Fold Alpha-type protein kinase domain-containing protein.
Amino acid sequence: NTKREDHAVIVEKRLHQKFQKWNNNNGWKRIGHTLDAIPESDVVDQITNDNLDSRDENLFVTKDEVAQAFSHFSYTNSGKKLLICDLQGVYDSVDTMFRFTDPVIHCHRTRDSKKKGAYGRTDRGQQGMHSFFRTHECNLLCDLVTRGFRNAQKSWNKVGSIALGKNA
């Protein structure tokens, strides 16, 4: 009598670029270096606001800052119920996008909730969120994405555009 077991398999697309880790689910973060001004020809991604005056001010951000701002944004945008972290993967400079693999989602649960680890064994809930914010340092990009571009007038008054350099 042979017992048959069902198995699940998860398959991800192969990531060919240099693999990096930007943060983890215990509060660790990769610390990048401030970039020097990037020549206009090297700017790969730019966000602009049409309501700005003609000042030519730019905010140059590193990939590390973008990843940290994304984690912070996930928390704010979910109504402080979720936080996406353990960001690892590659930055695809051709498509100008991050390709994350195996992220962690921390889920805020109420005291009455019996569902622990709603997003798997790495979901550390509020403790994971506290670990992230214990080491997180907001930057101007964080202010923009967590307050919403329309509500970040104070930030926009300081910045004309945001650019991510190829060598960031």
User: Anything to note?
Assistant: The helical segments are 63-77, 125-135, 140-147, 153-156. Confidence is low (pLDDT under 50) at residues 33-55, 150-160. Residues 20-30+40-165 form a domain with the Protein kinase-like fold fold (CATH 3.20.200.10).
